[in-house]
Design a protein that fits this description.
The complex is a heterodimer of chains A (246) and B (208).
Chain A: E1 3-10, E2 13-19, E3 33-38, E4 41-45, H1 53-61, E5 69-73, H2 79-82, H3 85-91, E6 96-100, E7 117-120, E8 125-129, E9 132-138, E10 148-152, E11 157-161, H4 180-194, H5 198-209, E12 215-218, E13 224-225, H6 227-238
Parallel strand pairs in A: 4-5, 5-6, 6-7, 11-12
Antiparallel strand pairs in A: 1-2, 2-3, 3-4, 8-9, 9-10, 10-11, 12-13
Helix pairs in contact in A: 5-6
Chain B: H1 10-49, H2 54-101, H3 111-167, H4 174-199, H5 202-205
Classes of the chains: A alpha/beta (246), B mainly alpha (208).
The complex binds fe (ii) ion (2 copies).
Chain lengths: 246, 208
């Protein structure tokens, strides 16, 4: 089973990180899932792949009623992001999945009816979780061509999906980035190869640098906090991307 | 990456068998189509031979009826196989999801969530059961349709042999008539062998 850690708490407004599954088979990439709760309602961010559903569900259920998860945010269309959708729908058939308009006809291959999907326009949208505004921030081409981050202004948290992702070695499994310089080595190759558009990266860095962010939470690897958030944005801004090797 | 560990079993093995059955049926259907054309040729040939080949003419009509019936049987085999592939695919998907759901662990004090997980599992199991029942029914139907086809082909064999004998009375047409009836006999044998192989198929022999 995965472990859950509260990374933000303000009354019933919480952010839960569901991380590090020791039982996960080695051939599946490790993922972080995040659950935002507010007013008794939950939104699950990138609920993960179908094979790790038991680990995520069990971890979530230990803290929160899965039937109160009425919404899912899918940063993009990858199987490690959203292939578990059919099983989450089993616990709430009215579940709404927010995803780029580009993927709203692809993701139903993982399950769901048209009524389960909210197609996000390219410019993004403000979602509401029991009155809590959550901003879908455009992050197209980083890496998916229809890609969003989710920003919680009140909690000052940005869920960044694959941006900031690091494939960490077994001896560096902490929840937060502790030493930026050594951490970022595990993120570099991934960002060079997976991220395809320098122009899109430039505009993302500008957009995100203007936001007030305490925690930048990626789908893989450790969370950037405090100074490391801007360290990451600056590092990414200067990184040469869209290269096969090197 | 142990390839030996990936030996299919259960529904996956069924699917493999069904695919093989389907290939065999496709072969038989193609042959049955050839028979129909041959029967038509035989009828024209008998007409030209006139009174010299009256007996052959009657038989070639029978052969034409036979090929029509054979085609109908093959069509129902085809739709049975199609339905079986659908059931097996659903079985594979449902059992994968049921397996995943059964790995969910919910603490004893989370009563509501636990009962929801059990309900979801029970619903999956019920659907699995329904697919299994339908698949068993299809298996029985397939078995009996293949047996019917085998009987029909035995009759076709008798007709082909009689046609060979009648061909001998075809006077000037005896040569071509013998050739046609000989081809008939060959094809009927071919179908007979294919059906024999189908009757031995692992999917059909499974008890359920
Ligand atoms: Fe991805
Ligand atoms: Fe990812």
């Amino acid at each position: 089973m995965k472990t859950t850690q509260i990374i933000h708490e303000d009354g019933d407004h919480q952010w839960l990180a569901i991380v590090r599954d020791p039982a996960r088979p080695a051939h599946l990439i490790d993922t972080n899932e995040y659950l935002v709760t507010h007013g008794g309602q939950g939104m699950l961010l990138d609920p993960g792949g179908v094979e790790i559903f038991p680990a995520v569900f069990s971890a979530v259920a230990a803290r929160f009623d899965p039937a109160a998860i009425g919404e899912v945010f899918a940063s993009h269309q990858d199987p490690d992001v959203i292939s578990s959708l059919a099983l989450w729908l089993e616990f709430n058939p009215a579940l709404r999945c927010h995803v780029s308009w580009m993927w709203s006809a692809f993701i139903p291959h993982f399950g769901g009816q048209p009524s389960n999907f909210n197609a996000l326009p390219d410019e993004g949208a403000t979602l509401s979780l029991a009155g809590l505004p959550l901003q879908a921030v455009p992050a197209h081409y980083l890496h998916s061509s229809g890609n969003f981050n989710l920003y919680d202004r009140q909690a000052r948290i940005l869920y960044s999906g694959d941006i900031g992702a690091a494939l960490l070695p077994a001896d560096a499994q902490g929840l937060y980035v502790e030493d930026f310089a050594s951490h970022i080595r595990h993120a570099e190759g991934f960002h060079r190869r997976w991220m395809g558009s320098t122009e899109a990266k430039r505009s993302w860095c500008e957009r995100v640098a203007a936001l007030d962010i305490d925690l930048l939470c990626p789908q893989h690897g450790a969370i950037y906090r405090g100074e490391d958030v801007h360290r990451f944005i600056d590092w990414f801004d200067g990184l040469q991307i869209g290269v096969l090797r090197g | 990456m142990g390839a030996a560990a990936a030996e299919p079993a259960g529904p996956a093995l069924d699917l493999l068998h069904i695919v093989r059955i389907n290939e065999e049926i496709k072969r038989v259907v193609a042959v049955a189509f050839r028979i129909n054309i041959m029967a038509l040729n035989a009828i024209f040939l008998a007409k030209r031979a006139g009174s010299a080949a009256r007996g052959f003419g009657v038989l070639s009509n029978e052969l034409r009826n036979f090929s029509g019936q054979l085609r109908e049987t093959m069509q129902s085999l085809d739709s049975l196989i199609h339905a079986a592939v659908g059931e097996v695919s659903s079985l594979l998907l449902e059992s994968r999801y049921a397996g995943i759901l059964s790995r969910v662990e919910v603490a004893a004090d989370r009563g509501r969530v636990r009962s929801r997980v059990s309900a979801a599992l029970a619903a999956r199991e019920a659907r699995l059961g329904a697919h299994r029942t339908r698949l068993a029914g299809l298996r029985r139907e397939l078995r009996s349709t293949i047996d019917d086809a085998a009987q029909l082909v035995d009759l076709g064999g008798v007709l082909a042999k009689s046609a060979k004998i009648e061909a001998a009375y075809g006077a000037a047409f005896a040569g071509p008539l013998a050739q046609v009836s000989g081809e008939f006999d060959g094809i009927v044998r071919e179908i007979h062998d294919s059906l024999g192989a189908l009757q031995k198929s692992g999917f059909l022999r499974t008890r359920s």
